[in-house]
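Sequence design from tokenized structure. All designs in this work follow the same two-part layout: the structure record, then the generated sequence. An example of the structure record is given first.
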């Protein structure tokens, strides 16, 4: 075949197809780079979340179906046996009831205390920044340090609280024993109200002043303005504090830090009012060595937290108002 004949055949068949795919345009390359950058920055958190959260939860779920005690290689698979025992254990139900009562009591008190402090330091006072700092400082104290401090303050023999009471002729009280232990536990929660104060303060400063001025012009009192203007606009913040407060309260380990003997052997000697759900889990893990049963307790608590959170969102869906720009919805 001559060159002219080959050219004619090529012309009849049309141009040869491209051997490679077209190169991505500038927009595609920019998007790919952004995706890579996102995953590179998120990789440390994703790795930590998988290794430190998902993996331990999966391991605990597997343990909840066994009789593993953490030491002996002789363990067996019991299926739902731990969960059946859990629902028939009176100690579990009693500790869960105390935990619910503690949450119902401590969460509203801490929110009210934090909101009150936020309203106070939001006023145009002299040295306002100093007061904010001093009121927030207790919140940055580590829980272990706060627990030791409260344990020393309320010690029956050498505590400063009983020392002050003795000055007024009041006999020393056993603050760390029943029936006073529950009050000390609530005081430890109020001690950290600085966290709630800071969040509430940010919410208060986000409320437009024009709304309060309009309410004042209409003749509303300070209390009516607070109730009808401040609280509704602050409702998303209050919802956030309620949810996080409930989650933190049911997982608190402060009773362990206040215990006279904060060891696995002494955990069973806690005051009855301080024997909360997490103390029951701690006792099953470290005092009795029942890793499987304690893991089942933790998974039940996880489900209860999800249910409680969903109920809170459902119950407050009609009273929480979000300050959203109407243009942002378009």
């Amino acid at each position: 075949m001559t060159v002219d004949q080959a050219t004619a055949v090529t012309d009849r068949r049309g141009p040869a197809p491209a051997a490679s795919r077209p190169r991505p345009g500038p927009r595609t390359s920019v998007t790919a780079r952004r995706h890579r950058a996102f995953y590179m920055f998120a990789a440390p958190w994703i790795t930590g979340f998988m290794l430190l959260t998902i993996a331990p939860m999966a391991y605990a779920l597997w343990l909840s179906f066994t009789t593993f005690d953490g030491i002996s290689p002789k363990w067996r698979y019991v299926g739902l046996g731990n969960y059946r025992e859990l629902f028939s254990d009176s100690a579990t139900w009693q500790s869960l009831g105390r935990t619910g009562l503690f949450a119902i009591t401590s969460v509203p008190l801490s929110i009210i205390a934090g909101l009150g402090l936020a309203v106070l330091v939001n006023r145009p006072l002299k040295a306002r920044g100093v007061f904010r700092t001093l009121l927030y400082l207790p919140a940055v104290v580590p829980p272990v340090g706060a627990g030791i401090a409260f344990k020393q303050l309320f010690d029956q023999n050498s505590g400063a609280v009983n020392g002050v009471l003795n000055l007024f002729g009041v006999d020393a009280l056993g603050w760390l024993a029943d029936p006073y232990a529950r009050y000390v536990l609530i005081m430890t929660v109020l001690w950290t109200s600085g966290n709630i104060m800071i969040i509430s303060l940010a919410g208060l400063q986000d409320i437009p002043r024009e709304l309060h001025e309009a309410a004042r012009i209409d003749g509303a009192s300070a209390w009516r303005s607070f109730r009808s203007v401040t609280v509704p606009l602050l409702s998303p913040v209050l919802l956030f504090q309620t949810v996080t407060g409930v989650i933190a309260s049911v997982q608190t380990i402060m009773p362990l830090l206040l215990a006279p003997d904060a060891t696995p052997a002494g955990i069973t000697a806690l005051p009855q009012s301080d024997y909360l759900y997490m103390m029951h889990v701690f006792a099953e893990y470290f005092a009795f060595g029942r890793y499987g049963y304690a893991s089942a307790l933790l998974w039940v608590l996880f489900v209860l937290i999800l249910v409680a959170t969903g109920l809170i969102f459902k119950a407050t869906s009609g009273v929480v108002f979000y300050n959203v720009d109407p243009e942002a919805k378009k």
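Residues 118 and 132 are 9 Å apart (CA to CA). We note this feature because it recurs in several other targets discussed in the main text.
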